[in-house]
Amino acid sequence: FRPGCLAGLSVLVSAGPTREAIDPVRFLSNRSSGKMGYAVARAAAAAGARVTLVSGPTALSPPAVAEFVAVESAADMYQAVMARAASHDIYIGTAAVADYAPEYAAAGKIKKTAGELTLTLRKTRDILAAVAALPDKPYTVGFAAETDDLEGYARAKLAAKNLDMVAANWVGEGKAFEQDDNALEVFWPGGRRTLPTASKAVLAGRLIDLIAERYGARAAV
Ligand code: PMT
């Protein structure tokens, strides 16, 4: 990417999975390793931005960024992101935030007595949509992880959540989640670009380049 393309700007990145407690020892989560989000945070810092990384639990070492905030649940991530979003120029939502969480976490470990156990899940708050709805919203980049109709769902997210850009990736067996390589189809109002398969480090650099280009184009309007 172009060195210094984000100099003077601040970038807030979310990364990794969230964990939604069922009881003190169990949780619901997903396969996000944090690799994509950490690569995006590193690339933004290398491009000259002041970077804040809000991360769910991962096995990775935190990258050298201005602020690293470790969170656990979707609700924690919502608080951490919303407390900081308006003071950043760009928000990149790479995290795989749980869409549903148990309506409550049992205070004690659930015992193995009943033959069947029903968990009631409730929708979590959408962090990306909340950031994009801020009156002084940062340039807001969402991710879209899809197993079908990548473009259709990605464009629907762009419009429904009032985003500035969506980076969409195919997910499923051996794709995106946990992998070292990835590919992105990036959409913004009136445009698109294919970022072909590369290591997440290289791909993150290309995405940061594109964000800098589109951010500059928006600022120039
Ligand atoms: O971490 P890795 O193993 O490297 O894998 C990378 C990745 C596949 C997780 C990443 O590239 C990716 O696609 N991240 C988004 C995963 C996701 O949850 O996608 P989604 O289509 O369900 O969500 C769309 C967007 O809404 C995302 O920007 C997500 O951060 C955001 N969201 C979702 C739910 C919610 N409650 N709040 C949100 O902000």
From TrEMBL:
It comes from the Bacteria. Its cofactor is FMN; Mg(2+). Coiled coil: none annotated. Pathway: Cofactor biosynthesis; coenzyme A biosynthesis; CoA from (R)-pantothenate: step 3/5; Cofactor biosynthesis; coenzyme A biosynthesis; CoA from (R)-pantothenate: step 2/5. The keyword Ligase applies. Keywords: Decarboxylase, Flavoprotein, FMN, Ligase, Lyase, Magnesium, Metal-binding, Multifunctional enzyme. One of its GO terms (molecular function) is phosphopantothenate--cysteine ligase activity. Residues 11-221 are annotated as: Phosphopantothenate--cysteine ligase. The keyword Transferase does not apply. Residues 6-213 form the DNA/pantothenate metabolism flavoprotein C-terminal domain. Its EC number is 4.1.1.36, 6.3.2.5. CTP binds at D99, K109, F143, K157, K161. Binds 1 FMN per subunit. It catalyses: N-[(R)-4-phosphopantothenoyl]-L-cysteine + H(+) = (R)-4'-phosphopantetheine + CO2; (R)-4'-phosphopantothenate + L-cysteine + CTP = N-[(R)-4-phosphopantothenoyl]-L-cysteine + CMP + diphosphate + H(+). One of its GO terms (cellular component) is phosphopantothenoylcysteine decarboxylase complex. One of its GO terms (biological process) is pantothenate catabolic process. In the C-terminal section; belongs to the PPC synthetase family. In the N-terminal section; belongs to the HFCD (homo-oligomeric flavin containing Cys decarboxylase) superfamily. Catalyzes two steps in the biosynthesis of coenzyme A. In the first step cysteine is conjugated to 4'-phosphopantothenate to form 4-phosphopantothenoylcysteine, in the latter compound is decarboxylated to form 4'-phosphopantotheine. This is Coenzyme A biosynthesis bifunctional protein CoaBC. The lineage of its organism: Bacteria, Pseudomonadati, Pseudomonadota, Gammaproteobacteria, Methylococcales. The chain holds residues 184 to 404 of 404 of the full protein.
